[in-house]
């Protein structure tokens, strides 16, 4: 009896400590988000005077204003298109390449992989100007497809790295079985490797979606046409040269954060689901 | 048959290599050779200086190495504090506890917020005269009035404070990857261990840790790469390089590009930076291989 | 499965959208790229007005913030895709490089046409920033290359209400440095914050230090130092550095000054948390937005010496240049002439509380702006001196002052550091 009681108490104490730990971290995560939202509901002159989290009045119209003044409609749509296209492109291209680096043998495989890794590590300052000139020569400068191709490149190295690490760990039995069944290499990639890689693919999707969604400087430099601009560029218009319209900026930032959180909510389910589908380890 | 087989393999990597060659290699070569010139970014003429820029970086540019040192310091804190925190949170969420989903969403909010907002919000939280001074007030409330400090405006603590805010923003990624990794460890292993009479600590040490090492290496490499390039956060928290105390390499490169209009020199700095990162990653990789 | 289809559909959709080429316009359209977020609505209105008047379409495109704008202009210059009208945010030597690369139209002939009618409508100091004089050190043929659209000065402001609380006369701001430092003690005693400014952004430190340099040793000696004829370890320079130490010791500087960006400083002053601020005339609009009831006045930086007058930085606030390669040059110039005439300037100035560049537009401006305008008499600007200091020296100079303020270096040490870098740069230049 004593033993059972002891273990039960220990379990309760440990669980409580864990919860306290989790909750304190969660609070620190929530506070800045709440600050951002509460600032978005205040007025410009109250924003730094009133330091409480709950504003005196709820100026919900800030959100409407931010949407209109920021020209959010078109830019929001653009951002979605760019993010979806780039993520789609990266998922296909990097998983093909990562699978090849991990499972297929061909001359130059190691060399190419190292090149991708090196690229991940060498940031190019001033690359914006180089890309501008390059796109100009290719006549792709003021076009969405030019931007999308550039952004696909940005996320390629890290995604290949993540996926290859996973593919290396993947057990060969399923692939061997498929090959014996007469599956082509592409077939194995599509039917075996990709489904197993769902958790990592989810990470790749979230990672790249975030990067593209938050990007603004390349877009600002290579697009001359306002109707191609992504959301982040529109947001910058609240950060004036001298006057920053804080409430509208915060409202804009909150609107901007929502889709990404949705993407994450969708994807994180796959990361967790992976355990039931990939249970061939060991 | 064999040739066709081999060719097929190349098709897999073709799209990646094609895009990479056009959009990375070409700009890279352009930037690389620019490091050998003195150029203001505007004129159509450049002055060839050979390795002059690199000599200047290695022999005279004290500010650059101080920036590297600062970035290294922040990265060290990220590798330890941030990643240990991320792992502990992932481990806690891996267990069967209530509100798992809630935590999983909350912990990913910091990475989603833009660096500008994070800087502004934390400045508000930490600072005394232009903020709500929450940290200091909490310390006093908990009974530590002598720990009260100007965290962001005191040169001695500014860098560490920035590092901690950066960790706050970054741990969500480590958390996500660690959680994904932990979830791929089949429950049967733990069951078997429990049946064999192993304690929680033993099964952690013998099962969890070894299987998580490759994931940990992955996270470490990504942490180094991401943290060494931090800069937006620094500008929104402390306004800039704070007399050198919060200089970081990217800020130095931007200063060369914009402040001094020395585009060629900035490219040389970028190349040097890249080389250092490669060396560090290589060492990390080797180290991890030995560990296995 | 459906998810994949959605993705595929989106992909196809964007391909269709993405490959659409730009449509060509038949009317002459002037494209103007600018960074002035606060003025964009006003610009759009003026553009419409101009179109009604002349039928010429003017397209104002905003690219903010100013850092990003700067990069965009430089990238466009590389690809020779600059718009018809744009601005150069940077120093005189960058301006010179643009001119040498053939990007900027020489406006002298337009300015001097009709007996200098366009030229004379401006405050001389506003034009001076856009001019290259005879025998300038940049190697540019003398001429006027830009059009100012407003002027600004950078001075100090003080909070009248807090003055009264400290027992000071709100209509008598400190005239001498000593008076200023004495107020510091009162501020400390009252537990208030003194001077705020964006000294995390080093150029503002440079501005004030330079103001005092002119005050202590006169313009000629300062320019001689830049030319390398006088050392930074000269006692006059050490006096300049010491002023910052004195300010720090007296308590007249706000806490955390060196980590502030100008926007935080503006917030603090607007919310009456600081007694003084060092800021430019644009602040009038900012403060009005954050705290319309703020009672404050403008003042010159308190003099440290009466040998030479104190200087402040002022001149053109923002300027536009015309693309020399533009197909619509003539139309662009005509538009700029219109934009800078009396009525448009008055309108622009009123809508964003800025000072007009046209000297005939000053009639009805708020008192606080008039105080800033009066400072123009003392105004100078690095872009009119004809010489530039090496940027690494400026950086060491500004960071040195930051170190003095946080108590890490003494004025003498900073002087030695700065001079060392100066000598290194001079040696490099001689070697070329």
How would you summarize what this structure contains?
The complex is a heterotrimer of chains A (282), B (292) and C (432). Chain A has 282 residues and is mainly alpha-helical.
CATH architecture annotation name of the largest domain in chain C: 3-Layer(aba) Sandwich
What number is the mean pLDDT of chain A? Answer: 83
The amount of helix of chain A comes to: over 70%
Total helices of chain A: the number is: 12
Descriptive overview:
The complex is a heterotrimer of chains A (282), B (292) and C (432). By secondary structure, chain A is an all-alpha fold. Chain A has helices spanning 2-40, 61-69, 72-103, 109-121, 127-137, 144-169, 173-180, 185-196, 198-213, 217-222, 231-236, 246-277. Residues 274-282 of chain A have low confidence and may be disordered. Helices cover 75% and strands 1% of the residues of chain B. Chain B has 13 helices and 2 strands, in the order αββαααααααααααα. The longest helix of chain B is centred in the N-terminal third of the chain and has 33 residues, at 2-34. The radius of gyration of chain B is 24 Å and the shape is flat. The mean pLDDT of chain B is 86. By secondary structure, chain C is of the alpha/beta class. Helices cover 50% and strands 13% of the residues of chain C. Chains in contact: A-B, A-C, B-C. At the A-B interface, helix 1, helix 3, helix 4, helix 5 and helix 6 of A face helix 1, helix 3, helix 4, helix 5 and helix 6 of B.
How would you summarize the topology of this molecule?
The complex is a heterotrimer of chains A (282), B (292) and C (432).
Chain A: H1 2-40, H2 61-69, H3 72-103, H4 109-121, H5 127-137, H6 144-169, H7 173-180, H8 185-196, H9 198-213, H10 217-222, H11 231-236, H12 246-277
Chain B: H1 2-34, E1 37-38, E2 47-48, H2 52-59, H3 62-94, H4 100-106, H5 109-112, H6 115-126, H7 134-141, H8 155-183, H9 187-195, H10 200-228, H11 232-238, H12 249-259, H13 263-291
Helix pairs in contact in B: 3-8, 3-10, 6-11, 8-10, 10-13, 12-13
Chain C: H1 2-18, E1 29-34, H2 40-54, E2 57-62, H3 66-78, E3 85-86, H4 92-100, H5 108-120, H6 124-128, E4 131-132, E5 143-144, E6 147-148, E7 151-159, H7 160-165, H8 177-190, E8 193-196, H9 203-227, H10 235-250, H11 262-270, E9 274-280, H12 283-290, E10 296-299, E11 312-316, E12 319-322, H13 329-339, H14 342-352, H15 367-374, E13 379-380, H16 391-405, H17 411-431
Parallel strand pairs in C: 1-2, 8-9, 11-13
Antiparallel strand pairs in C: 3-12, 4-5, 6-12, 7-9, 7-10, 7-11
